[in-house]
Design a protein that fits this description.
There is one protein chain. This protein is of the alpha/beta class. The protein has 3 domains: 110 residues, Urease, subunit C, domain 1, CATH 2.30.40; 320 residues, Metal-dependent hydrolases (TIM Barrel), CATH 3.20.20; 112 residues, no CATH class. It is built from 18 helices and 25 strands. Strands 1, 2, 3, 4, 5, 18, 23, 24 and 25 form a 9-stranded mixed beta sheet that branches. A 6-stranded parallel beta sheet has the order 9-10-11-12-13-17. A 3-stranded parallel beta sheet has the order 6-7-8. Strand 24 and strand 25 form a beta hairpin. Helix 4 crosses helix 6 and helix 6 packs parallel to helix 7. The two termini are 16 Å apart. GO terms for molecular function: hydrolase activity, acting on carbon-nitrogen (but not peptide) bonds, in cyclic amides. One of its GO terms (cellular component) is cytosol. InterPro entries: Amidohydro_3 (IPR013108), Metal-dep_hydrolase_composite (IPR011059), Metal_Hydrolase (IPR032466), Metallo-dep_Hydrolases_sf (IPR050378). It comes from Nocardia bovistercoris.
């Protein structure tokens, strides 16, 4: 008698091997057989006939550092087949944390990752000061999926150096020794990496850069050297220029990364998007990463499965939110605002006005609207053609594109959501992203799940990888299903040393998805107010996940939580499957 048997499914095991029809048996949270189980019975059985069976997805770029305090499900990732997340990315997090620095750390996270500060203030319990104590607090809360954490440079600097660290001043020798000791302490307690940020687009709520943005090589090499000495952990960063900002020496960042990885013998993963300032520049960075392997370095450009984009709506930032007449109705709920905006006199006033006051997000709304696309309420399109933009629609209609956007947002008959790609869509095609994904050094990430609550909802990327790339793409070549599954299971788990998961094979952790590929679809994004203190965020659900299994327990059936909370904190790397 097995604990669980999933029968007659199409197994895509995460290795990249061709799919095959098989059963999967599970005992004590571990896969015990993949093949035919014959007359064996299971205490629980799932009929997967006509369904795809995959390993659970491993998302290596999330910002659930605060949400782990209050949300045992870690929505929305759990709705998209994700069974393991890595948090503590981009140098921001909540440990180590001196008591007097709590509000400052919240402001840092709010500014960089757009998570409402009031929600963080109400939701975080602050049962820790040191990083090991933070891991203990995370481990104490049952949850639906596994979580792993990295030591964040920003919190580390502020803890050791106080105001000097927050102001990005260089550390003293004693400061650096103390920071290295705390990274070592974090790794030994179970951290699986160290993270930092160097992009000029990452700013605290005060407008100040993330501590560590301007760190010199001696600091970076000392901290990275701890990973080498301990023989564990990934060095993760968002490099200068990754946010699309213009830089004088675009190859300078990868030069020191290449050197550091070769010296300390640890993998480095860095965010990389195509950007409009240099649409082909990413190819040279990929070539350097590939060449670096020969010199003993291990560089992994971390790429996204779709453009880095914002979703514009009345509940988030939009082109009219700073206009005086709109601000007079901004306090109304969305339905009443839409109704007010349709009044002809108010519409005319708002459209004739200019924004009042500065807005750091104003760059998202240039005069031209050739990169603003209406989102369908039924089937969101993450690769829209140029002729579907508001600018193109306006030209064909002889209308003002801003007026079209206004009416779209004010209507009760549209999704009210506008897709605005910022990075990764320079030529109105995802062919460059496809080329990136196929590169042997590339790793899939950058979902930012849990972050950018009011503008971005890329936690749904695992689902769009399956729907868009493996099934639905019609504006270019697709990608093999087996490749897509491996890219977000075995490959992501292997980079971070989580070698006990990511494959459907005996001895591996029983993290499994059962997916109806015929009905799998992304729903339109929604704006909800379900965070602590009534904070708002974008969420996106999916249809087609028949079941998600974590450590052998069914956590979701047909998109609904079962109440099972088998997830745990992952402490440190894992050597491999459990011998059976």
């Amino acid at each position: 008698m097995h604990d669980l048997i999933i029968r007659n499914g199409t197994v895509c095991d995460g290795s990249g091997s061709p799919v095959r029809t098989a059963d999967v048996a599970v005992d004590d949270g571990v896969i015990t057989r993949v093949g035919r189980v014959g007359g064996d019975r299971g205490r629980t059985e799932i009929d997967a006939d006509g369904h795809l069976i995959t390993p659970g997805f491993v998302d290596i770029h999330t910002h659930f550092d605060g949400q782990v305090s209050w949300d045992p499900q870690l929505t929305p990732s759990c709705w998209h087949g994700v069974t393991t997340v890595v948090m503590g990315n981009c140098g921001v997090g909540f440990a180590p944390a001196a008591p007097e620095r709590h509000d400052w750390l919240i402001g840092l996270m709010e500014g960089v990752e757009d998570i409402p500060g009031a929600s963080l203030s109400e939701g975080i319990r602050w049962e820790w000061e040191s990083f090991p104590e933070y891991l203990d607090a995370v481990a104490a809360m049952p949850r639906a999926i596994d979580v792993a954490a990295q030591v964040p440079h920003g919190a580390l600097r502020a803890y050791v150096m106080g105001e000097r660290g927050a102001a990005d001043q260089p550390p003293t020798e004693a400061d650096l020794e103390r920071m290295c000791a705390l990274v070592r302490e974090g790794l030994r307690a179970g951290a699986i990496g160290f993270s930092t940020s160097r992009t000029l687009t990452h700013l605290a709520i005060t407008g100040d850069p993330v501590p560590g943005t301007f760190a010199a090589e001696d600091e970076l090499f000392a901290l990275g050297g701890v990973l080498g000495a301990e023989g564990t952990g990934v060095f993760q960063l968002v490099p200068l220029g990754a946010g699309g900002e213009k830089v004088d020496d675009p190859l300078g960042e990868i030069a020191w990364m290449r050197k550091l990885s070769a010296v300390v013998g640890r993998p480095i993963t860095f965010g990389l998007f195509q950007n409009d300032n240099d649409p082909d520049g990413w190819r040279e960075l990929f070539q350097i990463a590939e060449d670096a392997v020969a010199s003993g370095a291990d560089l992994h450009p971390q790429v996204a499965g779709r453009p880095f984009s914002v979703i514009i709506s009345l509940d988030s930032t939009h082109p009219f939110h700073k206009r005086p007449s709109y601000r007079q109705i901004a306090h109304l709920d969305a339905a009443r605002r839409r109704a007010a905006m349709r009044e002809p006199a108010l519409r005319e006033r708002i459209l004739s006005e200019r924004p009042v006051g500065s807005d750091p997000r104003s760059a998202l709304f240039p005069q031209g609207y050739e990169r603003h696309f209406p989102m369908s309420a039924e089937a969101p399109d993450y690769e829209p053609a140029a002729d579907k933009s508001f600018d193109a629609l306006a030209r064909r209609a002889g209308a003002n594109p801003e007026a079209l956007i206004y009416d779209f947002l004010a209507s009760d008959d549209t999704s009210g959501m506008i897709f605005r790609p910022l990075l990764g869509y320079s030529e109105f095609t995802l062919d460059p992203i496809r080329e990136m994904l196929l590169h042997p050094q590339a790793v899939l990430g950058l979902s930012d799940a849990g972050a950018h609550c009011r503008l971005i909802c890329d936690a749904s990327t695992p689902t769009s990888m399956l729907t868009h790339w493996a099934r639905d793409r019609d504006r270019g070549a697709r990608l093999p299903l087996e490749f897509i599954v491996r890219k977000q299971t075995y490959d992501t788990a292997r980079l971070y040393g989580l070698r006990d998961r990511g494959l459907l094979r005996p001895g591996y952790r029983a993290d499994i998805n059962v997916i109806d590929m015929e009905t799998l679809r992304l729903r339109a994004p929604e704006f909800v107010f379900d965070l602590p203190a009534g904070g708002g965020r974008l969420i996106q659900r999916a249809d087609g996940y028949a079941a998600t299994v974590v450590a052998g327990e069914i956590t979701y059936r047909d998109g609904q939580a079962t109440g099972a909370l088998p997830g745990r904190l992952v402490r440190g790397t894992k050597s491999g499957p459990v011998p059976r």
